[in-house]
Amino acid sequence: MSDTHSTPHADHSGEEQKHHTFINLALVLAAITGIELVLVYLPIHEAVVFSSLIALSLFKFFSVIAWFMHLIYDKMLLTLAFGTGLAIASGTVVALMFIMDRGFVDFEAISAF
Q1: Higher pLDDT, 81 or 6
Q2: For labelling alongside 108, which of 3, 42, 78, 91 has CA 20 to 30 A away?
Q3: Distance from C-alpha of 63 to C-alpha of 49, rounded to nearest angstrom
């Protein structure tokens, strides 16, 4: 009688491995953030610093999306949707950087008002 109403036991054998993976990824992301902070203060050419920061940020973005949002276990369409959002956001940032460049802005015309 007690066997008919017993609840099935869930298999949680892979959960501990997932937790270790999440902790390791969090530590890697923290180390990358530290590298980004140090890069800003190093006497390196600006182009190298900016390209390094962009590459590290893209890696962090995809890592967070793939692992912490569990998209690595979902369909590829969802990952492509987030990648499309990243591409649109990156294009917007690059366009704004070109628009707001000091060489293209006439500060005398702006300050006349």
Answers
A1: 81
A2: 91
A3: 21
CA dist 23 and 29 (Å) reads: 10
Q: For 47, what's the count of Cα atoms within 13 Å in the CB-facing half-sphere?
A: 0
CB 17 within 8 A of CB 24: no
CA distance 20 to 18: 5
How far apart (Å, rounded) are the C-alpha atoms in residues 26 and 64? 9
Beta-sheet strands, E only, within the chain: none
User: Burial level of 71, CB count in 10 A (0-12/13-18/19+)?
Assistant: buried
Give the tokens for residue 95: 């366009």
Mean pLDDT of all residues belonging to the chain: 81
Over the stretch 22-53, which tens digit does the pLDDT of each residue have? 888 889 999 999 999 999 999 999 989 989 99
